Amino acid sequence: MEFSMSLPLLLDPGARDPYRETFELARIAEESGFSTVTIGHHHFMPGNLPDPLTFLATVAARTDTLRVGTGIFQLPVHNPVRVAEQVALIDQISGGRVSLGVGMGWWPLEYQVHGSEFRQRGARMEEALKILRHVWTTENQGYEGRFWSFPELTVHPRPVQDPHPPLWVAGVADAAVDRAARLGDAWLCGPVQSLAKAQSCLDVYRASCAEHGTRPDWILRRYAWLGTDRKQVARDVLPHYVGGLMEHWRESAEDDIEKALFARLDAGEDVSPEEIAADRLLWGAPDDVVAQVQAYADATGCTHVHAAFGAGLPGSVAQASLGTFDEIAAMVRLFGREVIPAFAA
């Protein structure tokens, strides 16, 4: 089993090294056995990064073996040739340690401001993924498309990874999952989706991979809170954490299962945090999380689990995650000591 994790954005405004704590968490993740760290992407939200690629270049420069990636970069908002150049440069800086996780986002303002069109986001994603592969694997070639066209050119620097940095494609709609099978190297399962929804998406993904002759590979993302005492986590953390997650999920709920959950809550039904977390979060003591990961693996066959410790809160606040540096560092170290070894080959 491979384990990766999200980096929380911990900012100390005015400090000489304002993101020092986030960079330190990357080093702790590397020491604790995580294969990859990712960072998210949103414009005009104080708790998110408008330029995660620049940030990842710094993470790569401050680590040795840890892979870095986006989870997710809003590819249809931006020019894919420019993105290809940035990612190729990080691939050089890191010695071939970058992956590009992409998605479409949910906020029309981000598209509008950057000269893109929200209603065309699926088609733009499709073309942008083709362009990334095109410019990373060819030289002195042009491209003529619906949204982007360019004459013969070669992107420099060239990527280190062969044939190119891995493309992880997110989405839960059937069309998005099929796109991941055709044009991605892996499908990113959303962290808010229930196990039932993840399984239905997997059915689509695996069928699409078989149809198009591509190799299935996917990453199960889950929000997480790990402690030494399950009862303490359930009592003191889970209600507040799940409440914040639900507030954020309302902004981007896509599938019927999530919409049905909100309908129950809006009708006044008392849905416990434990019920909501049951097949959506990794939470509790290490033994609990080991059992949860094993249950996901048994149900889906997943071999790569991505944990987002305290993440997923609304991006409108300065820190879109729960927990101090010390709390998150303790969770990362505890996960590395007690959970990752349980799945060692």
TrEMBL record:
Residues 4-299 form the Luciferase-like domain. Its EC number is 1.-.-.-. The lineage of its organism: Bacteria, Bacillati, Actinomycetota, Actinomycetes, Kitasatosporales. It comes from Streptodolium elevatio. Keywords: Monooxygenase, Oxidoreductase. InterPro entries: Bact_Lucif_Oxidored (IPR050766), Lucif-like_OxRdtase_Rv2161c (IPR019921), Luciferase-like_dom (IPR011251), Luciferase-like_sf (IPR036661). Gene3D superfamilies: Luciferase-like domain. The keyword Oxidoreductase applies. It is an enzyme of class 1 (oxidoreductase). GO terms for molecular function: oxidoreductase activity. This is LLM class flavin-dependent oxidoreductase. Pfam families: Bac_luciferase.
